[in-house]
Automatic annotation (TrEMBL):
Keywords: Membrane, Transmembrane, Transmembrane helix. It holds the Pfam family DmsC. The chain crosses the membrane at residues 6-31, 43-63, 83-106, 113-133, 145-166, 187-206, 226-244, 256-274. It comes from Kistimonas scapharcae. InterPro entries: DmsC. This is Dimethyl sulfoxide reductase anchor subunit.
Length: 283
């Protein structure tokens, strides 16, 4: 699977954006509470670390990394790849600026505006990544389902990742952390239903394509891969949601394991996605 570096880049970048967005929403409810706002900003550092790992993964895909600066020339005609790289850089830069500003209490009157800008760039990044792969020349990608597949991981991984991080500081955030976890678990349950239903509908759409080769038979492991993906998705989310619904909103280990399982599930789904590009181009 020679696109493995892009598998990690896209999934991890979406995960980073999702975590930042969810924690950002919690921060909007925390303005006026300086200690809580700064604590949430410290947790947001995790999203920057994940984004950095995603960037390193993308760098390994470049045959000649020094030519990465050619992206600037691609902006002249709004190359989707150039827009993706530029948006990634802008999101990372503005997110870092917000985190640093809140931790150092620099220009607090502008914190809301900078946070809003970082969140807007995060959404733009999700759409920019999806736009790279919505190609008219690739029938298995030329669909709105591609956008769905590139946005929903940010939702489910963002909600779960943020929940794990908030739980890790539940002793310091007290009742706020418990209320946040209950709200996030409800959103997580809805996200699970949407992503599972949507992926099934996508597979149904894929099966209706008029192609020379059955997309599900491109690789011998596809059926096992899809089965494992669904199993890990449901198991991972259940490890967090079931205890949360029963009132256990402070334990970190079990939801952390669930997050790793869901991350593995999304990586499997992305491998399947890239395999279909190999099929459509005859590789």
């Amino acid at each position: 699977m020679h696109e493995l570096s892009l598998v990690f880049f896209t999934v991890l970048a979406q995960c980073a954006v999702g975590i930042f967005l969810v924690l950002g929403c919690l921060q909007f409810a925390s303005f006026g509470q300086r200690d809580r706002l700064q604590l949430l900003s410290r947790l947001q550092i995790a999203s920057l670390v994940i984004l950095g790992v995603a960037g390193l993964a993308a760098g390994t895909h470049l045959g000649q990394p020094l030519r990465a600066f050619n992206v600037i020339f691609g902006l002249e005609h709004l190359s989707p790849l150039s827009v993706e790289i530029l948006t990634t850089s802008l999101f990372g830069g503005v997110a870092f600026t917000f985190i640093a500003a809140t931790l150092l209490n620099i220009l607090p009157a502008l914190h809301r505006l900078v946070l809003l800008g970082a969140m807007a760039l995060g959404v733009a990044l999700l759409l920019a990544i999806a736009n790279v792969y919505t190609l008219a020349t690739v029938p298995t990608w030329n669909t709105d389902w591609t956008v769905f597949q590139f946005v929903m991981p940010a939702v489910v991984l963002g909600v779960m990742g943020a929940a794990v991080l908030v739980r890790s500081q539940s002793d310091r955030m007290g009742l706020f952390a418990r209320h946040a976890d209950k709200a996030l678990s409800t959103i997580g349950l809805i996200a699970l239903a949407v992503i599972a239903t949507g992926f099934v509908l996508y597979l149904f759409w894929l099966g209706q394509l008029s192609t020379a080769i059955d997309p599900f038979m491109v690789k011998d492991y596809h059926h096992s891969l899809l089965a494992a993906r669904f199993a890990l998705l449901f198991l991972g989310v259940s490890l967090w949601i079931v205890p949360a619904m029963r009132g256990s909103n402070t334990g970190v280990r079990q939801p952390a394991v669930g997050f790793v399982l869901v991350l593995a599930s999304e990586l499997m789904g992305r491998i399947f996605f890239y395999d279909l590009h190999m099929f459509s181009t005859g590789l």
